Every structure is written in structure tokens, then in C-alpha cells.
């Protein structure tokens, strides 16, 4: 038995078979019937007198949106007491005579300003106004709302309970939003308290329990409880170590310390948790979230229904492994241990991983075969993505070679002194390289990315979170297992973590307190989505790989077709593949131009004509829809330019600052191109495909960055390091360097330690 207000009710749901709540947030998008409980702190203003109209309007808009999607929405609302208090205060003050106000003492005036009002009277005065406000707001979205006032007895009288159930079902059938509240005008007097200045407030626990009871009675899929805190914390919110609990499981109450109650109401978080667990037991999923925060209240309800990581989600299904937050903390701790190892030990781990890639080749290819078969059976992956998904013996051999390059070049990466300065006598300053911290690498359809990125993270002493696409699940699993096996030789197994939970990428991008850098590896759409979703976390990468090759009027006939073929056809799905071919106008209708076109046709490359190129042709290929297109397949755009200057201007206007090439025998023209094209990689008489960490001798890359800060181009070990300053003194204080102090600044540059020649 659990008490709801002063009357107990049976804790097992009546006339309802034990349902099954959603196990994961991602399933909440399938919720059909939803109850939204609005706490007093959500509905009332900060001065606790009157309603928060803007906040309420936003909530009504979200509820209306979901209702118009075909869902069945119900609201359990507070606010009648606060609204009535505002009305009655004004009424009482207006009814006082001017004489009485003038002759009253100062203390009486103060009492008149905040009259003591009985809660039930406030509720009686506020109910009609509150409902009128809801009706006016819902009318803006062509939705009808209906008010239902209930008391405890309505749930204990069988006939009344059936009537209530029938009324709610009929309203939902007619697409009406029921707005339910306790009939606070007739409930028994509450225990005296001063929650709302001068008003004995009905305990918030009543509406929490009411919402849970209704949710179970009506067999709802989801109960959203909005309060003035972000959710459930493992210790009182505001304390130094308080952490928001993403998912709460029955039986976890012992690990939670409840703090004080919210701004208004008596229930507090403990009452909400009890109500939530009761609803969960009855088969209704529950989320407790903040409905007052100005930055999220405008979309908190819709975000929850979309499965985004908002508030605390109550689930009966506990995952077998750690949460992503726990994985991030494990990666940070493991990364710090990794950074403290000797360079030779980190290199030894990478060498071991390279050996495992070749030793376990058959198991890796077998797992990859499963991924390929599943992808082909589902038919969801385009051909370029299938090519990226595929592993082969040659790919694994190349991976192993690249990893050994990383191991060999990582000997002095972490802790390398890059600047030494003598500030003053016996006061020396050093700037040294250190790991960035915890990296989140999100990649799709490229299992070979996992060992590459892992090796670079190990070499640079960074903790690593990996989020791969589900299409490569089997391949990623075995490659991660081998990575952890290699890490185990020096006890740093946890430094590299593979996220296997159903975490949405957008939710991962919000972990700004746990992740220091996000590196996306995948389609331009993936990168754009991550750049948009990342809140407070830097993103390293490029959203597009629109690479150009400019064929100058002085280009060599022998070089042109070889470079273009390699740039476009060697691996068209790569981000460093040719997408736009710029040709000098004087080359049109020449044998060289004909050779280029013939070669592209033989290679079955579909040609799209740029506007200028199309104007020169009587019958042209299909005109390009956009000059900013990354095809990622055997397609390319051809455009005509009048000069190298025009080619540069075209690249700056339509390119993505990735990789751009000039083919010419004129050294002056080539140098002009190299110096003036503002891209991460600019080449002369070489294929765009050389834009790669392995081909640059970096061993591998975590990606190619087109940003202008920190790292640019293929990012290897150096791009995963930052610096810190070490100052070694002997009782030095700044006051000694003042005008009348005893010391002077020297600021002398000191020689750097000799680097490892290997």
C-alpha cells in the first residue's frame, strides 16, 4: 500500500494487465499515448504568484505538435492555487478603502500587500481561469481541451473510477486533450506550511501520484514529469560531485541521496521517483526532466519523445555493459595511464596490434564477411559505402604497415619539449607536448578506421571513444577486441572504448564534460550533423571533399590522363577523390581534351557539364545541378576556365578547402597556384589521392581537417597533441620583478633537448 495524499491506494494497477515499458530511449518515438505532468515550479512564475505564461505557451505548442502527429496527449497540471492566489490578492487589495489604507500602520500595509489566503479558496478562484488559459492556447492549434477535476475518492469508488476511465477514453477518441487536476477546492486541509508565501499549498506529491495513477489506469506508453531540476542526480543538485543520472533502474534508490524539495510544493524528487517507479511497475515508461530551463523548455517534450538524452529515463532493462558516461571516464583514466608509459611501451602496444591484424586475419575477414552479407541482404548501403565496408588481406597488410610506421614515429611524441625560455636566474620555462584528453571518433562503414585511430590515440597518449556504424558491427567488435588485447600487455585495456549502447550521435556530442575532441569520419552529411550537434566540444574534420584538378594550357599530355584517372577512378568513394575537373579554355577541341574525355568514358565516369563548359557544346552532357557537389562515385563535373587565376577563384568559391591540384609544365604558373590556393593540401603534377596520412608518412590519420586552427590536412599524431607549460623556480615571486624589485626578466631562449634520431 502507498499513500496518495491522506488516503492509501493499492500499488498494483487495477483492471490492467502488467504491460511492458520501453527498454531504451530510442523506442520512445513509438509512444502513442502520453501523459505530461506539469509541476508547480513549471507552471508558476518565479515570484510564486501567477503563471509563467511564456513557458506554458511553449508546453502547449509542443503538446499540440505531438497531438497533431496522431498521438494521444494528456496533461496533469498544477497552477490553480498560484493563479487563484494572484486573482484573490488583487481582489482583496482593490476592495480596501483608501481611508483604511492611509490610516493603517506600516506593518499593516505590509500584511495587506501579501494577504494570507487559504489554499482551497485560491484553488476555487484559480481553476476556471487556468482552464480558460489552456483553452485559449490550444485553440491556436485547432485543438480542443477538456477539464477533469478529480479527488482521491474517484479512484476508490469502483463506479467513479470506471466513469473517469470511460470519460478519458471518449475524450481521446474525439482527439481532445484532457487536462486533469486535483480538485483542490474540496480536498482535506493540508498540513500547514509556507511554501508559497502565505499560502498552504497542496503537496506536489499529490499530482505526481495522480499522474502515475492516471498513466497506469489509461495504459499510457510514456509519462513525462516536468519539474525545475534536470532530472535525478546521484547526490543533491548543486553539490560539487552531483552527476545527472541518465537511466535509473528499480533498486538503484540506495545509490541516490535526495536533497531538499523544489522551489514550490512538498513532494520533492523522492516523491517523483516513487511515483515514477510505481508507473514503471505498471508498464508505463517515465522520464523526469527540467521544464523551466529557458534554453531547453521550448523543446523538452518533443526531444524526449524523439529519444534524445534529456532528463532521467526510468528503465527496467539494465544493460550488461557500462554506460557511455562510464566508458568516457574509463577512457580518460586509461588515457592518463597510457600517457604516463614510456614511449617504448606505447610503441610496443602498437607493434603488437599490427601483428594481431595479420595473425588474426582469417577471423577478421570472417567477421567482415558477415557485415557485408547483412548489408547486401538489407540493401540499405550504396555501392561506395559497401566498398568502404569491405576488408581484404591487402588492406589488413597495409594497415599493419601503417601501424608500424606510427609506432616507429611515436618515440618522442608525448612530453617533447618544443620551447625553453629562461625567465630569470633559476627560473626556467618549458613548453611540452601532452595528449588532448578523450577523443570521440565517429565513423561509418569503415572498420579499417578503428585500428588506425586506435594506434594514433595510443601513440599520443589519448583516451579514445569509438562509435562505429551498425553496418560494421561484427568487424568493429573483433578489431576492438584485438586492440584491447594489445593494450593489455601494459595494463591499459580501458584506454580505448567501443560504444555499443544505443547512443544517438547527437547525445554523444553533448558530453562536453567528458569528451575533449570529436573527430567524425564519414559522409559530409554525418560531419555536418556532428558539427551542428556538438555543444561546447571542438570538432576536427571536413564536411565535404570537393577536390579539383586544374589542367593548365601548358600541361603535359603524358601526365594529364594518368593523374586524372588516378584521382577519380582509383577509389571514387574517398574524400580525396577528384570531383571537379577544371580545363583551360585553350585546350578545348584539342587532342589532349579528346584523350581526357575518351579515358573518362572508358572508365565509365559519368560527366556533368559546368555552365561555361556547356555553353561551348552543341550537345553537352547533363548540366551540373551544383558546382559544390561531392559525388563519391564514378561521376565528375567538367568546367572551363580562362586562366590559372580564374581556376583559383573557382576553387575558392566552390571548393571545400580539402585538396586541389594543378597539372602544368610551367613552374611559374605552378608556384603561383601552390601559393595562392587556400586549401589544406595543394599539389603540382600529383594525384589528389596522395592527400592521406599513410602516404604522407604519418603512418595513418584520424581524418583530414580543413579548419584553420590546431591541425590542417591529414591529421596524424601531431594533430592529437596539445601543450602545457612547465615552470621551475626557486622561491620566485612576481613582486621581486617590480620597478623596485631585486630581479630582472631575462627571457633568454634555451637550446632544445636533442630529439631521438630514429
From TrEMBL:
Domain Aldehyde dehydrogenase, residue spans: 323-588
Subunit record text: Can form homodimers/multimers.
Domain Aspartate/glutamate/uridylate kinase intervals: 32-290
Family (UniProt): In the C-terminal section; belongs to the gamma-glutamyl phosphate reductase family. In the N-terminal section; belongs to the glutamate 5-kinase family.
UniProt-listed InterPro entries: AceGlu_kinase-like_sf, Ald_DH/histidinol_DH, Ald_DH_C, Ald_DH_N, Aldehyde_DH_dom, Asp/Glu/Uridylate_kinase, G-glutamylP_reductase_CS, G5K_ProBA
Subcellular location: Mitochondrion matrix
Top-rank taxon: Eukaryota
EC number, UniProt record: 1.2.1.41, 2.7.2.11
Record-given protein name: Delta-1-pyrroline-5-carboxylate synthase
The keyword Mitochondrion is annotated on this UniProt entry: yes
Function: Bifunctional enzyme that converts glutamate to glutamate 5-semialdehyde, an intermediate in the biosynthesis of proline, ornithine and arginine.
Recorded name of the encoding gene: Aldh18a1
NCBIfam families for the chain: P5CS (TIGR01092), PRK00197.1 (NF001221), proA (TIGR00407), proB (TIGR01027)
UniProt pathway annotation: Amino-acid biosynthesis; L-proline biosynthesis; L-glutamate 5-semialdehyde from L-glutamate: step 1/2; Amino-acid biosynthesis; L-proline biosynthesis; L-glutamate 5-semialdehyde from L-glutamate: step 2/2
Keywords assigned by UniProt, alphabetized: Amino-acid biosynthesis, ATP-binding, Kinase, Mitochondrion, Multifunctional enzyme, NADP, Nucleotide-binding, Oxidoreductase, Proline biosynthesis, Transferase
Molecular function per GO: ATP binding; glutamate 5-kinase activity; glutamate-5-semialdehyde dehydrogenase activity
Keyword Disulfide bond: no
UniProt cross-references to PROSITE patterns, sorted A to Z: GLUTAMATE_5_KINASE, PROA
Catalytic activity: L-glutamate 5-semialdehyde + phosphate + NADP(+) = L-glutamyl 5-phosphate + NADPH + H(+); L-glutamate + ATP = L-glutamyl 5-phosphate + ADP
Assigned GO CC terms: mitochondrial matrix
One GO term of the biological process aspect: L-proline biosynthetic process
